[in-house]
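Assess this today:

___
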Amino acid sequence: MTKKSPPDAPESLGGDDGWQEHLEELRRRVIAVLAIFFAAFLAAFAVADRIAAFLTAPVAHLGAKLYTFAPADKFMAYLHLAAWAAMVATAPFFVLQAGLFVWPGLKKSERRYTAVLSVTIPTLFLTGAAAAYRFIAPLALRFFLRFAEGDGIQALWGLREYLSLLAGLLLGAGLLLQMPIFLLVLFALGVTTPQRVARYRPHVVLLLFFLAAVCTPPDVISQVLLGVPLYLLFEGTLVIGKFQLRKTKQKQ
C-alpha cells in the first residue's frame, strides 16, 4: 500500500499577510479617528453655550428670541451642536488618515490630485458654509420675521428648529460649492469635456438656481445670493477645464 504524498503547501502567504496588515492599519486609523471625534465631542459639549451663542447671533441681531418647548430641548440641542462641532473638527484628521492609508498605492499623478483635492474640498465647503452664515441666513431670517408679522399670530421660534434650519443652510451651501470639483473630475476622467458641458449652459443655469431654491428659504434674495456665485463658479470651472485639456494635449 503506497503512502499518499501530503498535499502541496501554498507557495506563498504573502498576499494574505498583506491583506491582514492593511486591515490592521485600517483598524488603527479608524480607532484613531473615533478617539479624536470623541475627545472633540466632549470638548465641544463643554463650551456648547459659546457655540450656541455664535450660531444664534444672526437671529439675535434681528431682535428675535429663541425658546425651548420641552425640558430636554436645550440639552438635546447642545448634544447636536457638540456632535456637529466634533465632526467639523475631526474632518481634517479623517482626511489625513484616509490619505495616509491610500497614499502608498497611488501613482505620482494620483498623489498630486489627491493632495490638491484634500485641500480644495474642505476649503470650498467652509467657504460655502461661511457665506451662508454671513449673508444668506440673516436675509432668510429677516424674511421669515417679516412674514410672521400681522394676522394676530405671535411667532415663537424653537431653538432646535432654528438650529436645524441653520444647519441645512450651511450644509447645503457647502455641498453645492463642491460642484466645480465634480466637473473637474469628470473632465479629468474623460467622461465629458468643457465644450460639451458649455452647450447645455441654459439647462445648467436653470439647475443651479433650482438647487439654490431648494437649499435656501423661499425668498428670492437668498436664492440669488447663492445662485449667482454658483453660476460664476460654473463658468470658472469651464475655463479651468479648458486650460487643463489644452495642457494635456500639449503633453501628448
